[in-house]
Amino acid sequence: MGELKLMKGNEALAEAAIRYGADAYFGYPITPQSEVIEYLSEQNPYERTGMVVLQAESELAAINMVYGAGASGKRVMTSSSSPGVCLKQEGLAYIAGAEVPCVFADVVRGGPGLGTIQPSQADYFQNTKGGGNGDYRNIVLAPASVQEMCDFVALGFDLAFKYRMAACILSDGAIGQMMEKVVLPDQKPRMTDEEIKAKYPWAINGRKNGTQHRIITSLDLDSAKMEEHNIHLQKKYKEIEEKEVRYEMINCDDAEYVFVAYGSSARIAQKSVQLGREAGLKVGLLRPITLWPYPTKAIDALIKKGVKGFLSVELSCGQMIEDVRLACNGRVKAEHFGRVGGIIHTPEEVLEAMKKQIIGE
Amino acid sequence: MTVQDIIKPENLVYQKSKLLTNKPFHYCPGCGHGTVHRIIAEVLEELGVGDKTIGVSPVGCAVMAYDYFDVDFAEAAHGRAPAVATGIKRVWPDKVVFSYQGDGDLAAIGTCETIHTCNRGENITMIFVNNGIYGMTGGQMAPTTLEGMKTATTPYGRKATLPAGAGFDGIPNNGYPLHITELIARLPGTKYVTRQAVYDPAHVRNAKKAIRKAFENQINGKSGVNFVEIVSNCNSNWKMEPVAANKWLVENMLPEYPLGDIKVDGKLVEK
Amino acid sequence: MTEEIIIAGFGGQGVLSMGKILAYSGIMEGKEVSWMPSYGPEMRGGTANVTVIVSDERVCSPIINAFDTAVILNQQSLDKFESKVKPGGYLLYDPNGITKKPTRKDIHIYTIEGAQLASDMGNSKVFNMIILGAFLKLRPIIDDKNVEEGLRHSLPERAHKLIPLNMEAVKVGKDNVKQA
After folding, report:
1. What is the distance between the alpha carbons of residues B40 and B53, in angstroms, rounded to a whole number?
2. Which of A75, A162, A205, A313 ranks highest by number of CB atoms within 10 Å?
3. Residues whose CB falls within 8 Å of the CB of residue B231, separated by 6 or more in sequence, listed in order
4. Contact residues on chain B for A217, CB-CB shorter than 8 A
C-alpha cells in the first residue's frame, strides 16, 4: 500500500502527475484550481524527477506548450477552470487533429462567462461534445473523490498515449478544493529519451540518422486525404466507445428508478439512494466514470432489466440529461434535476426530485 | 558535351541543401520564403544538426514549411509557434528548436506568445518574415503594413488616424506599423536580434550569416531568444512584378524597417 | 456517526490548520473525513472558514448549509453562522472580541477563553489547539492519541518537537470550556 495522506483534490492531481513520471506541466492560475501549479512549484519536481513546470502567459500559450511537448513524445499535463478551458479549446482541436497525447484537467466553476468561482458541472458540453472546431472527441474522466483525482492522472496518461489524443479529467470546485484521505502511488521513473524514441516513432524529437522526417500537423489541403484522416479518427473513437467505457453501479440490481450522476453529484446521489432505500423505494445510482465514451449500453441494460425511469442529477441546468435521453430513446422517463450558481443540492432534495419528477406521488 | 559530362561531380558549383525535401515550393515566384527556407536549411546542414532539429511552422503562407524541410516539424496554431517551440525546447533542451512565422502570425495574433517567449529567454531561434501584409488570406492589412499602403482591408491606404475632412481627422483608425523587433530587443530575455533582407545576393549572404549566428548561439548557449527578422516581399498581394516588388521594398519597407543588428550578445547595438 | 463542523474566524488564527489537524486526526481514528475551505474573494477581507466532516461512512457533499457544531472565533463569523447550527447542535466561541453574544435557545452554547489561555501559556500559536481541545471535550469524537497522530501527519517534520506543547494546549482547552 502506498502513502496515506490528507490532501486537496488539486494537490492530489499534481502529486499524482509527479509520481506518474510526467515530463512537464504548463498552466496558468485560475480559481478554483490554482493549487495545482502552486503545489507543483512548491514541490520542485525538476529536482525530484526532472519534471518541467512552467507558468505560461495564458491558457492559450499553456495548451500550445502542451501541444509542442506532447508532439515530441513527452508526458505533458495542463489544468484550468471553465473560462480558462474555453481558451484551451483552440489548442485542443489542434491536439485532436494532429493526434497529440496529453492530459488536461478542468476544475469546473459556474458560468457562463466569468460566472462564479463556486463548484459547478456546467462544462459537460464543453468537454464531452467538443468545444473546438471539427469532428473530434476527448476522453473524459469524471473523478468523484480526491482519490480518483489522483488515480485518473495515470489512467488519463495511459489512455492518452494508447489512443494518441487528449484525456480530460473533468472535476469541479468541490472535488478540487476539498481535502480527503488519499493513498498515493509509488514514484515511477520518467521515461528516458531513448525509451520515448523507441516507443513513439511518430514523435518529433529529431530524426534518427538521417531517416525521413516526422511531421505533426492537423492540416491537409488535399480533401481526399483529409477525409481519410477524419475516417481514421472516427474509427479510433469507435474503438474507444467499444473498449473504454467505465462506470459504477450502486444498488442497481433490483432498482426500479435510477439516479444518473457523476463527480460530486454522484456522492450526493449515493446518499439519496440510501435515504430512498430506507424509505422503501427501489432506487439505485449509475455513476458514469467516463463521460465520453458514455455508458449508453449500461442505461440500455438497466431498461431491459426493468428500470422505469432515470433522474440525471447535475450541478447544471441540464447537460448530461441529453445523453441519458439518447440512451433511453424515449422508452422510459428521463428527467433532469440540479442546482446551479455554486449551490450544491442536498441528498434530501435530490430524492424529493426523484419522487416528484420520475416516480410520481 | 553531353548532359552526362555536365553533371559530373567535379563540375558541381551549387546544390540544393540535403535538408530540403524534393517537394516543390508552393510559394509564388519571386517570394522571399523560398530563399529564407534555403538558407536556414543550408545553415542547419553546415552545422550538422539535421538530426537534432525540430522546426515549428506558423499559420500563413509558410504553414507547410514542414513539407520542405527534411527535419522533424510541428505545425502550430495561428500565432502560437513560440509557445509550441517553448514546449518542445523545455522537454528536449539539447535539441535545436526554431519557429518560423510571418508578420500577422508573430506580431498580431501571436504578440502575447512572442513577447513572453522572448521575455522568458527561451533558448530557441525565431525566424520572422515581415512583408507588411497577410499573404495567405489574400492581402489584408498586417500590423507591419506601412502607412498609406493599400491592402484588401485598407483599400485607400493604411491610415493611422482618420484623414482630415468631415471633422473626423485625428480619430484613431488603423494605427501605426508595429516595430515588434525593436520592441523585443529591449527585453532582457533576447540574446541576438537582427533585421535582414533577401532581395539580392549580398543581402542573402548577410541574412545567412545572421541565421547562422542565431543557431550557433542556441547550440552554444543555455538561454536567450535569437531572433532574425527578414524584411521580405509579397509581389502577389502587393500586385507587382517580382523585380518591381523588390525595388519597392528597398524604397519603402527599408526606410521604415532599417536593416542591421539591433542586439548582439545581449547588448543593444549603438546607432 | 457523522459530525459536521464549521470553524470560522480571522485569517491568521489557525482556522484552516485546526481543521486540517482535526481531519487528519479523524483519519487516524479510522473515520472518513472531508475538509473544505472557503476560497476566492470570500477569503479576502480577513475572514477564513473551513467545513470539516468526520463520519463513519463516505462523506457525500463536502459543502453543507447546516452544522452539528460551529466553532466561532470572531464576531463576523458568529453573525454569519449562529443561525446555521442545527437545532440541538453546539456553538463554541471565544468571547474575546465578541460584543453581540449568541441568543439562540435551541442549541448548546459554550465558551472557551482561547486567546487568554494561549497568552497564559506564553505562546499565542497554540491558540487553535486550545480551541480544538475545547471542541473535543464537547464532541469527544476522536481519541487523544489519534489527535497526536494527526498532529504528526499535518505538521512538517521540523515542527514535531512542538507536539507535546500542542497536546498540552488541547488539555488546557478541555479543562477550560464553559457553558455560556
Report:
1. 11
2. A313
3. B130, B131, B195, B196, B197, B249, B253, B254, B257, B259
4. 57, 66, 73-75
Q: What is the pLDDT of residue C45?
A: 57
Range of the domain at A127: 3-193
The full set of domains in chain B, from first to last, is 19-268 (3.40.50.970)
Q: Which residue of B has its CA nearest to A62?
A: B83
Give the ipTM of the model, two decimals please: 0.94
**B21, B51, B74 member nearest A68 (Cβ):** B74
Phi then psi for residue A15, to 5 deg, are -65, -40
Q: Do B91 and A24 touch (CB under 8 A)?
A: yes
Same domain, A184 and A254: no
Q: Is residue A35 domain-shared with residue A128, that is, in the same domain?
A: yes
Nearest to A67 among B52, B66, B84 (CB): B84
Reported confidence tier of residue C40, pLDDT bands at 50, 70, 90? low
Between CA C26 and CA C179 the distance in angstroms is 25
Asked if pLDDT for residue A212 goes beyond 70, the answer is yes
* B54 min Cα distance to partner chain A (Å): 6
**Residue A57: which of B119, B33, C153, C127 has the closest Cα?**
B119
CA distances from A196 to A73, A155, A282, B39 (A): 6, 19, 52, 31
A172 & A27 share domain: yes
CATH assignment of the domain containing A260: 3.40.50.920
User: Structurally, how many domains does chain A consist of?
Assistant: 2
| Residue B22: how many other CB atoms lie within 10 Å | 7
Determine, yes or no, domain membership for A135: yes
Residue C100 burial by Cβ neighbours in a 10 Å radius (0-12, 13-18, 19+)? exposed
The upper half-sphere exposure of residue A110, i.e. CA atoms within 13 Å in the direction of its Cβ, equals: 16
- The answer to whether residues A64 and A181 belong to one domain is yes
- Lay out the sheet containing A247-250: strands in order across: A247-250, A283-288, A257-260, A309-313, A333-337
Q: Are B203 and B100 in contact (CB under 8 A)?
A: no
The CATH number covering residue A85 comes to 3.40.50.970
| pLDDT of residue A60 exceeding 90 | yes
pTM: 0.94
Task: Calculate the CA dihedral of residues A113, A116, A118, A123 and round it to 10 degrees.
Answer: -10
Same domain membership, residue A180 and residue A41: yes
pLDDT the model gives residue A62: 98
Contact present, A117 and A109 (Cβ < 8 Å): yes
Predicted pLDDT of residue B223 = 95
Tell whether B77 is within 8 A of chain A (Cβ). Answer: yes
